[in-house]
Structures are given as structure tokens and as C-alpha cells.
């Protein structure tokens, strides 16, 4: 097996865009070589990662799992390069870590690429980015920025809205609800359904956010499976083991057997915020916020 990092980066770009033309443009290569390299990757793995037809590109279940692994590998390589640079004096001064709290949502897919390329392009050698999945220690000044869902947001931090998006129901394509007119249901239709969701100890704000929303409409979910990542939730729905609720940005993750349904309730929304301490930001952190706000304005869900 001879898989190179470029194969992973090519696959991630196609998985992000779900379009070979746009992915090729992002990678600054032509489309035929990109398609060829993805085919080589699939042959090396012995698995179909993408389902292609004349209308669209979708991730297969194997592709969704491999996307998660590919991101992890790229992240590890970037961290190793950063550590080597620090050891050799390549990064000067204090390392500033940007804390991105989300689990394979649109932010995690799009923003880290923007962050890394933008900070490098603007020659900020002291800036690094660190992606974690726990509550960030912003208050004690160890980290510059935090990106989070609707946790109770501390008053002593400054918050800016990045994303405002509806929640969607995640169901199996053969579930009776999947045939709802216009792909739109009431949240009350989920009242008697087995739920697949995050475990409370994972610490994601979506746990409390979704349970609060369900409680508002008199629903106590029957949670049959508790997991640590949204990708696992979607995979379990694909296997017919239950339904779930997730922010609409997860609709970009195309997995065989899964259908996303909009909700009739206007208050079924989720928000994402960038937060920092009430103090002047360094240049790299301020540049990052500017880039993220510009990106979120283009991708705002209403």
C-alpha cells in the first residue's frame, strides 16, 4: 500500500466540497488528475469512498469513516511539523493556540484549512492552532480564542456570532418520516422514536441544547445509543438504530441510507460563537476572527 499525504488532502478537499470541480479549483489542479488520484486511493484501500453520479458526489459509509481518519492524520503531521519547528527555533516567541470546539461540523471541515493557510500566507510564524473537544481554558489566558456552540457563555468573555443555523432531524431513508412532504416534519413526530445522541460526559453543548429543545415541546427522548462524535451518530442512523437531531451544517456529510429533514419549529436553531477574554488580541488572533466572520457570513444558515 502506497498512500501519500497528498492523497489524503485531495480526498478531504473532495469530501468538503462534494464536487470534483470545486475541489480541484481549491487545490489549484485540474479535475482529471484529481479524479485519477481519488481512484488510486480507493484502489489502495480496497473500498469505495465516494458515490458519484451525474448530479452529485456523496460520501459512502466507508468514506465518512476514512474522512475522520484522514483529518486525524493530517492534524498529527501538522503538529509534528510545528513541534519540529519550535525545537529548531523555527517559531519565535510564544505559541498562540486557537481552540476550535466542534465535532465534524462545517466549522471543523472548512475553518482549519482557512486558518492554517491564512496564517502561513500572512507570515505569522508565532501562531499555531490546536483543535480540541473539551471546554477551553480561556478565562485563565492559556488560549486566545474559543469557538463554541450555545454553552452558557460566560459574561467575562467577549462573544461574536459566527453561525446561526436550523436544527434538522436525522433519519434513515426508509423511515416513515423520510417521506414527509417537502422533507419537513414537526419535532413532535420524534416523540416516540429511539434516539441516538451524544453521551453527556462528552461535554458537547449540543447535548443540553437538544434536550432543552425537546423538553420545551414535552418530549423526553428515549436515548438508546450514546456516543462521542457526530459522525458516529450519523453512522448509527444509517444502520437503522434510531433518529437524531443535529445542526443543519451536518447535512454536508452524505452517508448512504441517511436523510436530513427540516423542522417546522422556528426556534429549533443552533448558534456558534467565537469568544475571547476582554483584552486586546494579538494580530494573528484578530486576523483569524476576521477570516472566520467573513466565512460564516457567506455560509450563514437561516
Structural description of this entry:
By secondary structure, this protein is of the alpha/beta class. Among the domains are: 1-70, Arc Repressor Mutant, subunit A; 164-270, 3-Layer(aba) Sandwich (D-Maltodextrin-Binding Protein, domain 2), CATH 3.40.190.10. Helix content is 38%, strand content 21%. It contains eight helices and twelve strands. The protein has helices at 5-17, 20-27, 31-45, 61-87, 106-121, 205-216, 230-238, 283-298; strands at residues 50-52, 57-59, 98-100, 130-131, 145-148, 157-172, 184-185, 194-198, 222-227, 244-247, 258-263, 269-277. The strands form three sheets. Strands 3, 4, 5, 6, 7, 10, 11 and 12 form an eight-stranded mixed sheet that branches. The protein has a two-stranded antiparallel ribbon with strand order 1-2. A two-stranded parallel ribbon has the order 8-9. β3 (98-100), α5 (106-121) and β4 form a beta-alpha-beta unit. The longest helix is centred in the N-terminal third of the chain and has 27 residues, at 61-87. 32% of the residues are buried.
List keywords for this structure.
302 residues; alpha/beta; Arc Repressor Mutant, subunit A; D-Maltodextrin-Binding Protein, domain 2; eight-stranded mixed beta sheet; two-stranded antiparallel sheet; 8 helices; 12 strands; globular
Amino acid at each position: 500500500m502506497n498512500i501519500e499525504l497528498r492523497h489524503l488532502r485531495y480526498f478531504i478537499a473532495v469530501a468538503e466540497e462534494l464536487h470534483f470541480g470545486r475541489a480541484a479549483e481549491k487545490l489549484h489542479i485540474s479535475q482529471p488528475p484529481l479524479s485519477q488520484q481519488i481512484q488510486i486511493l480507493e484502489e489502495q484501500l480496497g473500498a469505495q469512498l465516494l458515490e458519484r453520479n451525474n448530479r452529485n458526489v456523496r460520501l459512502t459509509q466507508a468514506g465518512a469513516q476514512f474522512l475522520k481518519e484522514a483529518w486525524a492524520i493530517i492534524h498529527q503531521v501538522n503538529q509534528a511539523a510545528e513541534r519540529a519547528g519550535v525545537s529548531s527555533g523555527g517559531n519565535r516567541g510564544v505559541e498562540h493556540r486557537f481552540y476550535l470546539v466542534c465535532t465534524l461540523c462545517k466549522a471543523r471541515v472548512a475553518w482549519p484549512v482557512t486558518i492554517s493557510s491564512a496564517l502561513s500566507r500572512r507570515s505569522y510564524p508565532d501562531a499555531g492552532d490546536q483543535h480540541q473537544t473539551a471546554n477551553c481554558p480561556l478565562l485563565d489566558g492559556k488560549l486566545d480564542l474559543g469557538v463554541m456552540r450555545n454553552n452558557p457563555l460566560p459574561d467575562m468573555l467577549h462573544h461574536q456570532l459566527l453561525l446561526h443555523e436550523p436544527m434538522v432531524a436525522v433519519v434513515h431513508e426508509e423511515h416513515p418520516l423520510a417521506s414527509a412532504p417537502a422533507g419537513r416534519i414537526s419535532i413532535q413526530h420524534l416523540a416516540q422514536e429511539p434516539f441516538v445522541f451524544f453521551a453527556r460526559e462528552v461535554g458537547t453543548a449540543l447535548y443540553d441544547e437538544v434536550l432543552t429543545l425537546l423538553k420545551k415541546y414535552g418530549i423526553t427522548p428515549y436515548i438508546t445509543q450514546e456516543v462521542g462524535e457526530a459522525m458516529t451518530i450519523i453512522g448509527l442512523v444509517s444502520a437503522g438504530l434510531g433518529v437524531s437531531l443535529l445542526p443543519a451544517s451536518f447535512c454536508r456529510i452524505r452517508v448512504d441510507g441517511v436523510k436530513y429533514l427540516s423542522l417546522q419549529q422556528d426556534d429549533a436553531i443552533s448558534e456558534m460563537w467565537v469568544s475571547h477574554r476582554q483584552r486586546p488580541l494579538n494580530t494573528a488572533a484578530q486576523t483569524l476572527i476576521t477570516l472566520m466572520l467573513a466565512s460564516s457570513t457567506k455560509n450563514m444558515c437561516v
